[in-house]
Design brief:
The protein has about 240 residues and is of the alpha/beta class. About 40% of the residues lie in helices and about 20% in strands. It is built from nine helices and nine strands. The longest helix has 19 residues. It is globular, with a radius of gyration of 17 Å. The chain starts with 7 loop residues before the first helix and ends with a helix.
Length: about 240
Amino acid sequence: MQDDAWLEPLRRELDAAAVPRTFSFRADDAGWANDQLVALLDVFARYSVPLDLAVIPAALEPWLAASLRRRPETDSGFLAFHQHGFRHVNHEREGRPCEFGPGRAAHDQRRDIASGARLLAERLGETAPIFTPPWNRCTETTGRCLIELGFRGLARDSSANTLELEGLQELRVHVDWSRPRGPRGELLAAVIREHRTAGVMLHHADVGPDDRENIEQLLALVTSHQNACCVSLGSLLAA
């Protein structure tokens, strides 16, 4: 077992918190790297921590969908699913990669979002009305298409400019586990110092055995500390 000293800044911040802090965990790219996905799901299942799985509709094979639906944490509500783009491909001819970017017309974006939603409904049943755009990038046009199609939440990195569209709530990620902007323990401590809710994004394909052990240490802390609780993204949507 690795030393969990890296968590000390977060532990101190939780000890000092005047009110409890909330943590949410989002795992992107479901449909790819399935062995690593299952290994990560098993970690969260051991601690009964809610995990929101952002699923690539076109990459979701029927056998994987059936396997996900059979998991006990799906029935218990600790594992939730929402839409992660459509194919997770880049459509931009220049600049940063984006599936739902400025180079795509509204009708093309709407068609792909709707097609993805149908695929997920067929294979997973009811999913959360939340959309995570690949690479955490999209446009105001994307947001308006989402509202038209009945989505209520847009999950992106906290560095993205808010769309500020009525009816579409932004659910922010503050820490990218695979690409942290500094020591993870210090980053998490800084987030809960500033916000009551800390969003953590995971990419299971990038999570190896050492990372899984660190994630277990984090989950052990936030499930045992009196000033921490873990919630699903769906529970953060305004009524």
